[in-house]
Amino acid sequence: MKKKMVHIPMPWRYVINAAAIAVIFLIFMVLSSAGVITNYYSKILMLIGINMILAVSLNLATGYLGQLPLGHAGFMAVGAYASGIFMRTASGLPTGLAVLLSIIIAAVVAGIFGFLIGIPALRLKGDYLAIITLGFGEIIRVVLLNIDSVLGFNFTYGAASLKNIPKTTTFTVTFLCVVVVCFFIHTMMKSRQGRAILSIRENEIAAESCGIKTTYYKTMAFVASAAFAGVAGSLYAGYLGILNPANFGFMKSIEILVMVVLGGMGSMIGSLLSATVLSALPEMLRAFSDYRMVAYSLLLILVMIFKPSGLMGTYDFSFTRLFGGLLGKKTGDSTVGKESGE
Amino acid sequence: MSVLSTVVSQFINGLQSGSVYALIALGYSMVYGIIMLLNFAHGDIIMVGAYLVWITMSILGLPPAVGIIAAIVGCALLGVFIEKIAYTPLRKSPRLSLLITAIGVSFFLQNVAQLIMGAGSKTMPTIVSGPNVRLGSVNLSFVAIVTIVVALVSMAVLTILVQKTKMGKAMRAVSEDMGAAQLMGISVNKTISFTFAIGSALAGIGAVLYSCAYPQASPTMGGMLGLKAFVAAVLGGIGSIPGAMIGGFAIGVLEAFVSAVGLSVWKEGVVFAILILVLLIKPTGIMGREIKEKV
């Protein structure tokens, strides 16, 4: 059964999406100025935003590329430390510029690490790729913990934590970063590169025999995923104001992976939704503080048993499709009658 | 103390912790061999085993033998129970879902343990004690010798079990080809449950031996221990039983020597660096078999 839809031409799709995003942002702004969103809620919202970026960036490597990296927290750590160290030294710059620069630096440094790790790691497949990225993630953590004793001066401050990072992450910055990262990943996946990445997920050998440079595209997706994790790390540094390598252990990587799988691999809206739920849930369950982690783990097991493909499967939400569908229903005839892929 | 005796005593230390890693690695390896699952909950089964020892000995005041049996039987039952509840419904699902379920089980065990036993660590009672043995100028602790001997005996028993018994043959058949094994009249469910029982029982033995060496039990103790044992399993070749033993001993000895030269803070880093090197040079590990990809 094919639904009748109005095909919305290209520039209008961007307008619709931009307008929708602006409306969402305005709602948040109005709510916060009206005092509905208190400082506490805005903290939670920022955390949700950071986790959203982590989830969509890992989704790029897991959902779209079909690999299973278990060291995502390592890239986040690299970004967080790069940005934290930069912000501590860049006190002379105006705040806005410093924040922008710190995010860019975090993305670039994490991207470089993603490249260095991706080149050897992506030679492996499946479980072995998972294990090797797990190893790299742990090494990043151990190095951050102990590098000072090798360098001879205080650089990451190891177990004593990198303190006094300016707390520059605001709701607006987080929101903008989420939008930009989602936009990047979305447009990337709709492009030639994105189709190449998807074809590698579907069947690597077939993709290669169709002339797709699999190593090139795998590395590209991996580096992009690492760079966006760096962005999240940068926001995290400015959110907490203090960084400790223990925050970026194996469990953090798993936490991010859980968000992606629970939401449905390869579904951006799934990642966004499950990042929201899983970040907010521990806060909502604060009343049952002793039982909340038990409930969290049980939820995880139950969802996997009853819906192994994740909550959303590979379904992706689209404003233009929604509007196209609505318009199609209203006119009720086959104006264009074409499935809009967006 | 001469250099040689230091080397020998560090080697024994390494073999002691390596025995524990090897026993745990066997559980990872057997489960991976049979259902291709990285069983992340395996480390937490060790934690449960350690608490079982603590409960039977410190709370109920029973002798060590009862504690040891409680740990082994309890872990084996827990392993089978987890497999039945959480993994069996997912046998036909994508493997990633299975992996996430294992992670969920791991979280669950940790948090339930924390809820019941509290977040602090419990001091374990003395399980075995005896006089130290002097070998030339080297002082060998009784616990170290017991640990190594118990581990070697367990491995010998396991090898006989897998190679000589009917159930062992069934296990090998199922890990070779599940569908064909089923056609030959092997009960796949029973075999998988049995594998989990054996793997978890070995984890129980590992828990007892670990508690002898480091008399502390905490809800998160399984995390790093499990991860290192997992590295040992990969190093030896995941899915291979002799590989897991070799990998376990190798990781233990390596750690001991890294600590001995004063780099103990880098201990974990070195373990993972070795892991990466092995994966890059020979991804199937020391004893692993090459699997050709068919188009």
Descriptive notes:
The complex is a heterodimer of chains A (342) and B (295). Chain A has 342 residues and is an all-alpha fold. Chain A has one domain: ABC transporter involved in vitamin B12 uptake, BtuC (Orthogonal Bundle), CATH 1.10.3470. Helices cover 71% and strands 0% of the residues of chain A. In chain A, helix 3 runs parallel beside helix 5. Chain A is globular and about 65 Å long. In chain A, 44% of the residues are buried. The C terminus of chain A is likely disordered. Chain B is mainly α and 295 residues long. Chain B has a single domain, classed as ABC transporter involved in vitamin B12 uptake, BtuC (Orthogonal Bundle), CATH 1.10.3470. Chain B is 73% helix and 3% strand. Chain B contains 11 helices and 4 strands. In chain B, strand 2 and strand 3 form a beta hairpin. The termini of chain B are far apart. The model of chain B has no long low-confidence stretch (mean pLDDT 87). The interface between A and B is large, with 42 and 42 residues.
Q: Which oligomeric state applies?
A: heterodimer
CATH class of chain B: Mainly Alpha
**How many alpha or pi helices of chain B?**
11
Low-confidence stretches of chain B: none
